[in-house]
Amino acid sequence: MSLPVLRTDRLVLRPLTAGDEERLVTAFAGEGLDGSPYTSVDLADPEALRALLTMNLVEQRTDGLGHCVFEVDGVAAGFGHLSAFRQFPPPFLSMGWAIGGGYRGKGLATEAVQALLQHAHDTVGAPAVWALIHPDNLPSKRVAERAGFVNVGWQEKLGQSVEVHVSLRPSRTQPRRLVRT
Ligand SMILES: CC(C)(COP(=O)(O)OP(=O)(O)OC[C@H]1O[C@@H](n2cnc3c(N)ncnc32)[C@H](O)[C@@H]1OP(=O)(O)O)[C@@H](O)C(=O)NCCC(=O)NCCS
């Protein structure tokens, strides 16, 4: 199974295709973009974004993971991923997200992240999903918090200290009460 199509109230999350590159370049070249200072590549730079997306197209997955586009009314507004990386290897999964400048501040990233998390925990069965977030990236930290991630520590990424945020698979059973005897 590759990453399936996921639907929320306002979004369709579907696997990234080659045809999405120029659509996403348009979304991230939009007015109001802050230059994405907290991502490893400048998403507003068309060449850098194309290179990132092309690299992420190579994968052919069978484990329910992968890169996806966030569509609003059929328009590519952002993208994200659910992947396995060596920092915290499987069964733990990594998640990332980005929304184009013209679509920010409407709760869309939060909605997309919640859908990806539900898929990760409930369908893929990941016990924990982690995301690395720059400490000054307040919008992204808020998205993580609202989606249920908890800040658990620090990690070095490209020479910078970034925060490690973790979402644990919700427990379906009641915790056992400790009974004093
Ligand atoms: C981070 C990002 C995905 C947020 O997308 P979004 O669709 O605007 O996010 P949402 O609307 O779901 O939520 C943003 C939250 O941050 C809050 N916020 C926005 N700017 C803020 C700021 N400067 N300081 C504090 N909070 C801020 C918003 O109020 C909102 O919280 P609320 O819903 O409680 O009001 C988007 O800014 C982005 O793509 N940035 C560039 C790429 C990036 O940084 N990706 C994450 C890498 S870890």
TrEMBL record:
Pfam family, one: Acetyltransf_3
Sequence ranges assigned to domain N-acetyltransferase in this UniProt record: 11-173
Domain of life where this protein originates: Bacteria
GO molecular function: acyltransferase activity, transferring groups other than amino-acyl groups
Keywords on record: Transferase
Alphabetical list of InterPro entries matching this protein: Acyl_CoA_acyltransferase (IPR016181), GNAT_dom (IPR000182), N-acetyltransferase (IPR051531)
Protein name: RimJ/RimL family protein N-acetyltransferase
